[in-house]
């Protein structure tokens, strides 16, 4: 199982954390672990957006699916995930 190194940006204060994630971890579980580590606040519905990576060929932000793995979401090594607090439409 390969680890993917990513930077995750906090949704409100723009602090960030660099972590290695197994490519088969579900995004929802990443958020749970970040809550356990006191990086994110519990009780909030989080989503993620994969930031552009011009050197990796991605020019646009890509919304991530909480129910898919990091690998299935197309997250690669040295990518940046912007964490957002999901709002009800």
How would you characterize this protein structure?
This protein has 89 residues and is mainly beta. It contains one helix and five strands. Strands 2-1-5-3-4 form a five-stranded mixed β-sheet, covered by helices on one side. The radius of gyration is 12 Å and the shape is globular.
Quick recap:
By secondary structure, the protein is mainly beta.
The Rg value, from CA coordinates, equals: 12 Å
The largest sheet has its strands arranged as 2-1-5-3-4
The string of secondary-structure elements, in order, is: EEHEEE
Mean pLDDT over all positions: 93
Set out the fold topology:
Elements (H helix, E strand, L loop, with lengths): L2 E7 L6 E7 L4 H10 L9 E5 L11 E2 L15 E7 L4
Parallel strand pairs: 1-5
Antiparallel strand pairs: 1-2, 3-4, 3-5
Q: What attributes does this structure have?
A:
single chain; about 90 residues; mainly beta; five-stranded mixed sheet; 1 helix; globular
């Amino acid at each position: 199982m390969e680890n993917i190194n990513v930077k995750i940006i906090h949704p409100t204060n723009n602090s960030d954390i660099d972590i290695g994630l197994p490519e088969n971890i579900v995004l929802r579980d990443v958020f749970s672990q970040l809550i356990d580590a006191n990086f994110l606040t519990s009780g909030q519905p989080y989503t993620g957006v994969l930031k552009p990576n011009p050197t990796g060929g991605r020019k646009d932000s890509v919304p991530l699916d909480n129910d898919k793995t990091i690998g299935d979401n197309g997250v690669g090594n040295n990518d940046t995930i912007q964490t957002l607090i999901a709002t009800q439409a």
